[in-house]
Amino acid sequence: MSTSTIKSRPVHGTLVPDPTGRHHIVVGEGPGSAPVLRMLADPGFPEHPRHVLVAPDPASGPAGLAALSACGVAEIVPDVPSLLRRLDALLGGCRMGTRLYAAGSESFLGAVVKIAAEHGLLDDERRTEHAGSAARRVHCTHCRHVNEHVTANLVACGGCGRTLLVRDHYSRRLAAFMGVQADAEQPGATPALQEVFP
Amino acid sequence: MTIAFKPDETYRDDFTFRNSPAAIRRFPFPFGEDVYRYAVNIEPHVRGGPTAAYDNLFDIDEHYIAECRERALVLAHDPKRCQALPHMMAAQWDTLELLMENLSTDYPEHFSLVRDGNAWHWTNRALGIEQHFVFGDAGTLPCEPLEYIGRQMQGDLTLQDQREDNLFMDAGMVTCQADWSLEFDLGMKFHEWHGPVPLAHEQGVFDRALKFLLNLQLGRPVRRLNWTMTINPRMDTSPEQYPQWGPDRTTITPENAGSRVHLRVELQSLFRLPRSNAILFGIRCYLISLEELATIPKWSRRLHRVLQTLPPELVEYKGLSRFRDTAIAWLAQRDDGAPTSVGTAPD
Amino acid sequence: MTPAATIPVVVREVRPVTPLIRQFTLAREDGLPLPAFSAGAHVVVVMPGPARTLRNPYSLMGTSADLSTYDIAVRLSETSRGGSRFMHEAVAPGSKLAITPPVNLFPLDKLARRHLLLCGGVGITPVSAHVRELVHGCVPFEVHCGARSIEHATLALELQAIAPDAVTIHLDMPGPTMDVGSILAEQPLGTHLYVCGPGGMIENVIATARAAGWPQSHLHWERFTAPPAGKPFEVTLSRSGKRITVPPEMSLLEAIEAAGVDAPFLCRGGACGQCETTVLALDGTLLHHDVYLSADQKAAGDRIMPCVSRADCRTLVLDR
């Protein structure tokens, strides 16, 4: 088992307005506020109803959102869990024609996409842009513990203590990457530790 | 014909699984020529083929009872090896119907199905099971239909829902897999669950295969073979259990390669299901040791030649790196360079 | 894939349901149960026409709960190329026909949070099956049936009896009264839209949905169009070594079949892609009528969907 060029991992794009939508929901986390601001300023962004929700990320805090709060169109939510709850409630009242845009860390985007899917949003109704941390949520295949904020190719599993190798294989249902024991074949023979998802 | 089952065989611990000479001759050997060549190799899944393993749409052999017991052990340890998303109930019943119909028709000595409208009576004499139930009413079975029938089958089953011009792996019973995880892959699209496979994406293999499968027709199943190699006759080589079987790969020596290195072949079959419009994917796994394989000289010669020409990416992906050379050396002693006949059937 | 083996059936009952539509109840000749199917599936009925074999797709209207018979409904087409006229004039109880096993190119999306079904005229047939399935589930649904007048609305009234709260009937008086725009405007997120009816209705509904911001992934439609007639043309079938002429009222696929060459098909309406055939040589223009090939693929001129498309050419060589 090793990491490789695996096709299941999410591919994020650049946030640009979807002119075919009739109602737009934009969510951002921390450094994701920059793509959100850029899109709001896009002259092509339709004048349709819109909701903009942004939460600080733990690393940069509310200070990172100063530019966005200054422009007055975004609602600043205290933290990501509150934002996700707000998004869930908001989508529950939306009609067909809604488009969802999200910018933030890999984990944030995974959580947003999972909520969107639960409301029946399909791939052509949402757009994502990665901004900030590339840290991954890693699902331990052996004990099923989910390890948050993994920045290296190896992680000591918080559930079973095994050293996991983080594979590129990604599950949208679990919103997590796959982790398998790195030295199962030869105890102690792990690859070199590398900070690959800063 | 009554099958002489070998109920006491094991696929773990003392590994007493062996193939009888008859089981060796019916092995679905996968290589039709002396070099490795990747091909989509999908063909109609019709009765009859190079060996007796192809005689029925769902093959039952001498390992049936032992394999069902192994499956029960895996499920007892990890119930998540059988999962179905809620919208797959119709596909579960379709699967149960297809399997019960085929088993009772093809192996009447061992299985029978009596239907009176929706009141069904199923008998599995091999496992000593008798069940009256109402087709379509899951409350009349001891567990959900996929798990009920899956526990009485050799081989893994996955169910694919068809929507968004794609296939989604939304249910399955998977206990004898070659290093993939149902818990992780559940809900994935076709290209996502094939994500880890090297080389084939670039060749457009999965695009073509998906297009083909989206139009798969009722009553016209198709099949293909896949293969890898496993140390010991171990059915459960799941990622979940990798810590248990991974170390086996370092234990191969010239002395034990013949008995411990196994060729693992999956006879994969795909069926359109009627009520759900889903696709059933059957993955029937066959294991054979190099020693058993070498009783058919054509097969050991050919496996030797194929292993030598396998691309490095596939050696890595199939997990052969640690023992391929030892296996090749063992096979080399049994390859006199003689030509082999065309096709996969034994000489 | 070659065409599936057909199932010999006998007509048990013929029921005129509207001035233009007849419903046919089919059973297997050997008395065995018919194959189970999913809502939205169709079969291709093979009819022994006077001059040639006719093959038309018709949706199955019932459910798999009773597989002793299948029900289909056939609208007499003013421009019938033979199929619907044959069904209306030459088929009676006891008539023998053959059908292909069911194929579903118009299924319900199993993860939809709501289903919205719009149909017009005989386009109600697959929706009849959808509604009979949906009434047993817990996902909300809403159906709008358009009909010319009350005597053309028999099948819609039957559906309304099954699901009174979900089915609305819109009678033309004198023009269409279904307000598609307002129906589509108020649908909750996760709704899937299904349309079956005359070509113009499908185009109107889909265009309205797109304008209201509905994404492609939530739009489903099924159009049973007769292959368009055209000028006769000659074709060489290279694999089978045959040279055939496609008459004006026959499709290319039908001409290939009439020549005794097996060709794959599923929808016979230019939608599924199953009959895609490689063009090996062409001196002239392909007249693409399918909705399967992309504009680029059509322009490339290296493949054709023979169930609906034709050619205006001196030479056409197909890999068939």
Structure explained in plain terms:
The complex is a heterotrimer of chains A (198), B (347) and C (320). Chain A has 198 residues and is of the alpha/beta class. Chain A folds into two domains: 23-130, Rossmann fold (3-Layer(aba) Sandwich), CATH 3.40.50.80; 136-181, no CATH class. Helices cover 21% and strands 28% of the residues of chain A. Chain A contains four helices and ten strands. Chain A has helices at 33-41, 66-71, 80-92, 106-118, and strands at 23-29, 50-55, 75-76, 98-104, 126-130, 136-140, 146-150, 154-156, 163-171, 176-181. In chain A, strands 3-2-1-4-5 form a five-stranded parallel sheet, with helices on both faces. In chain A, a hairpin with a 4-residue loop joins strand 9 and strand 10 (176-181). The longest helix of chain A has 13 residues, at 80-92. Chain A is elongated and about 60 Å long. Chain A starts with 22 loop residues before the first strand and ends in a 17-residue tail after the last strand. The model of chain A has no long low-confidence stretch (mean pLDDT 90). Chain B has 347 residues and is of the alpha+beta class. A seven-stranded antiparallel sheet of chain B has the order 1-8-9-10-6-7-2. The two termini of chain B are 24 Å apart. By secondary structure, chain C is an alpha/beta fold. Chain C folds into three domains: 7-102, Beta Barrel (Elongation Factor Tu (Ef-tu), domain 3), CATH 2.40.30; 114-222, Nucleotide-binding domain of ferredoxin-NADP reductase (FNR) module (Rossmann fold, 3-Layer(aba) Sandwich); 233-318, Ubiquitin-like (UB roll), CATH 3.10.20.30. Helix content of chain C is 19%, strand content 33%. Chain C is built from seven helices and 17 strands. In chain C, the strands form three sheets. In chain C, strands 1, 2, 3, 4, 5, 6 and 7 form a seven-stranded antiparallel sheet that branches. In chain C, strands 10-9-8-11-12 form a five-stranded parallel sheet, with helices on both faces. In chain C, strands 14-13-17-15-16 form a five-stranded mixed sheet. In chain C, helix 5 links the parallel strand 11 and strand 12 (219-222). Chain C is globular and about 60 Å long. The chains are: A alpha/beta (198), B alpha+beta (347), C alpha/beta (320). At the B-C interface, helix 3 and strand 6 of B face strand 7 of C.
